């Protein structure tokens, strides 16, 4: 049986164990496969592609299991082994993006950036291009650039991600709405509340169409709009959007009580700043009742 067929069987077996909730068994099978692959490379270096595949599978499993240090080590070894043989460009992209996301998660942004960049190029160079994957990585990369204050680069990657996702899914997609939301957050942070408001209106419109008017993500868009309105000194818009957000979140207290409480606290602070102490006190009383704090 060819190494490609063996890899497919291994991936399928590990995936079936993981999906059945048998993570320990999946890790054991993948670990045994890796030990065998390392031995196979010692016997014949032509087996390096088998080793790369085994490393990728176990790295993915360890990431899903929350062992990020082990996963990181395996992704690194996978890339080092891939440099010694020919592997598909898409596999290189997966290895690079997997390691980039671990660096990103652990706030090693500068180490993540070149890996994201190369993974994006890898995904876009295959035939046909993996536009969905590259768009998602651009979104991640934009978040890093935003956190580093490199707003122009963040905007560039958000816009390229948006273009790809709209082409793939059309405008009415939660993926598209999420990028509009992220663009709004970027413009707000960069000091452009008018542009931020425009992006959050786009996100709100799409979410209402796709998710329904009472979805928790719609509430998030209302909160973001309220924040932009505050900077634009649109007091009526601030109150209208905060109140719509809280009304929706009250319907989702079982899963979004923290969001409800944080949004309410933010609105109370805004009301006090706007010289509305009675409204602030009334809201506080209502929140205490809704959250069972009376």
Approximate helicity band: over 70%
How far do the termini sit from each other?
69 Å
Structural Rg: 24 Å
Which geometry do the CA atoms define?
A: elongated
Strand content: under 5%
Helix segment count?
14
Task: Describe the main β-sheet briefly.
Answer: none
Number of strand segments:
0
Q: What is the average per-residue confidence, as pLDDT, rounded to a whole number? A: 94
What does this structure look like?
The chain is 82% helix and 0% strand. It has 14 helices and no strands. The radius of gyration is 24 Å and the shape is elongated. By secondary structure, it is mainly alpha-helical.
Main features:
mainly alpha, elongated, 82% helix, 14 helices, single chain, 294 residues
SSE layout and pairing:
Elements: H1 3-19, H2 23-43, H3 48-65, H4 68-82, H5 89-105, H6 109-125, H7 131-147, H8 151-169, H9 174-189, H10 193-211, H11 216-231, H12 235-249, H13 253-273, H14 277-290
Helix pairs in contact: 1-2, 1-3, 2-3, 3-4, 3-5, 4-5, 5-6, 6-7, 7-8, 8-9, 9-10, 10-11, 11-12, 12-13, 13-14
